[in-house]
Amino acid sequence: MKRISWPPDHDMVMSMLGFEEAYQSALTVRINNEPPLDVLVPSIPALALMKIISWDDAYPRRERDAQDLLFIMENYGNAGIEDELYDSHVDMLTEEKFDTRLASVRILGRDIARLGSPETIRAVEEILTCETDEDNGFRMLSDMAKGSMRQGTRFVAALQLLRKLLQGIQESKPKA
After folding, report:
1. How many CB atoms lie within 10 A of CB 59?
2. What is the pLDDT of residues 79-94, one digit of tens each?
3. d(Cα 52, Cα 39) in Å, to the nearest integer?
4. Of 111, 121, 118, whose CA–CA distance to 168 is shortest?
5. Which of 15, 19, 85, 124 is most enclosed, with most CB atoms within 10 A?
6. Domain locations in the chain?
7. pLDDT more than 90, % of the chain
8. CA 161 to chain CA mean position, Å
9. Quick one: CA dihedral 154, 156, 157, 163, positive or negative?
10. pTM, whole model, 2 decimals?
11. Cβ distance 141 to 69 under 8 Å?
12. Does residue 41 sit in helix, strand or coil?
């Protein structure tokens, strides 16, 4: 796995997994017209991918990544995918009993799987499989709870979203 470390002591090490995918799917956003200033911003699926990897890479110091991931999952349906949801995924909506939030999270998982390399998707799948297994202590869900349960998301609902994200990834990951 590719890693970088920060000088001078190189004691802070960070995984580079997902960075290429984030760069390749980045959107150009103009911040200023005069003089022109454009910046690259990761797509929402790339951001979710990087949040998962960053959380796992630096656990327990990165609880904010888990909270951000929950926010992304809760709001992906409002990110301009409504037409896609009703035009291309009626079967998924039916499977999810027309719960647009669950179907949207599955689409997010599919979008993550489409942009990720096999190595990256394998790592993300392993993280999510571990974090949705009750035998592993639900560390990610505990971190999510520290920030967002005050917004009304219950533990069970957050677990369901993580499982739907994993399902979406598994439905569309590249075949090896």
Report:
1. 16
2. 988 888 889 988 899 9
3. 23
4. 111
5. 124
6. 44-172
7. 61
8. 11
9. positive
10. 0.88
11. no
12. strand
Contact 26, 16 (CB under 8 A): no
Name the maximum alpha-carbon separation found in the chain: 56
CA distance 115 to 126: 17
18, pLDDT greater than 80: yes
In 3D, which of 110, 119, 131 has the Cα closest to residue 56? 131
172-to-105, 106, 134 alpha-carbon distances in Å: 13, 10, 25
Reading the block at residue 83, the tokens are 């037409």
Residue with tokens 């990610």: 140
Identify the pLDDT of residue 16.
75
pLDDT at residue 149, as a whole number: 52
**How many CB atoms neighbour CB 74 within 10 A?**
19
Q: How many CB atoms lie within 10 A of CB 110?
A: 20
Residue 67 near residue 146 (C-beta atoms within 8 A): yes
pLDDT per position as a tens digit, 117-170: 999 999 999 999 999 998 988 999 989 888 655 555 578 889 999 999 999 999
pLDDT at 100: 93
Between CA 129 and CA 65, with CA 154 as vertex, the angle to 5 degrees is: 55
Torsion sign over Cα 110, 25, 132, 142: negative
Joined together, the tokens standing for residue 31 give 């911040």
